[in-house]
Amino acid sequence: MDNITIVTYSQSPRLVEFSHALLDTAYPKLIFNTWSPAYIQDLMYVQSDWIIHIDEDAFVFRSESIPEIIAFMEKNGYAACGVPDGGIIDHRPHNPVSCNPFFTILHRKRILDRVDKRESYTSEWSPEFAFKIPNICTKKQFSYEFDNFEPYYGFYFWLLKHGFEILYLNAEQWKDEPEGISTILNDHNEYPFVLHTWYSREYQKIRYSKHRIMRILYRLITGQPGPIVAGVHFKRISRAMKASLIMKSEISCLKRGITNTLLQTIIY
């Protein structure tokens, strides 16, 4: 496998520390404390064959899904993967052919092998892209619109314009959260592997949002209580996931003192 790099744009050093501590991978990590509307396009300037972008409030609890997705993308000719930003998540009723990049993988080498390196990596919407709507979006009751809601949509439009294939991943609302905000992302085999809490920009500004994210993270690390996704108990989905969530992550985080930090942060 060629070189792989994880990239996170962070506004909260503590939150990205928690997020990366859960990642049981040996891939090098880059953390940028700046942000621009074209931050996904900017990933193409990272010198790596594969780029994995993970938001600081996206927590990977089944790390083995990442190399499995990359191998699947390599074998089947995909240039990018991610969850559609419309038709899948109830509070994201936007464009289903673009991905929401809270977790996205780019096969940078494959892309650069076919296009000029001086490209802008962005394109306007074209009606022909509507025919690329993923099947998973048409099977759910959530709304979508072929809009240009986010500045990063242009990158995914650009991929489609140049004939690249996108691997669209499924997702579900996390059922064990009263607010119904967080999202569980599934891999290409429908194994849950990422929990995205959303609204990390509020982590350092709004006390409630910080405590909501901390409670979720504490559950992921300790496994108490086991979250529920679509009526399936988290700990019973697979032995591999249980090992990743309860054993690897807890041991890793305990070594860093994260569990104690969380206990001091959470207000019950």
Model description:
The chain has 268 residues and is an alpha/beta fold. It has one domain: Spore Coat Polysaccharide Biosynthesis Protein SpsA, Chain A. The chain contains 9 helices and 12 strands. The protein has helices spanning 13-21, 39-42, 65-76, 108-112, 135-138, 153-161, 207-222, 239-255, 258-265; strands at 4-9, 29-32, 50-54, 58-60, 78-84, 99-107, 165-168, 171-173, 183-186, 192-196, 228-229, 232-233. It has a 6-stranded mixed beta sheet, with helices on both faces. The N and C termini lie far apart (45 Å).
Would you kindly provide a brief summary of this structure?
By secondary structure, the chain is α/β, with parallel strands linked by helices. It has helices spanning 13-21, 39-42, 65-76, 108-112, 135-138, 153-161, 207-222, 239-255, 258-265; strands at 4-9, 29-32, 50-54, 58-60, 78-84, 99-107, 165-168, 171-173, 183-186, 192-196, 228-229, 232-233.
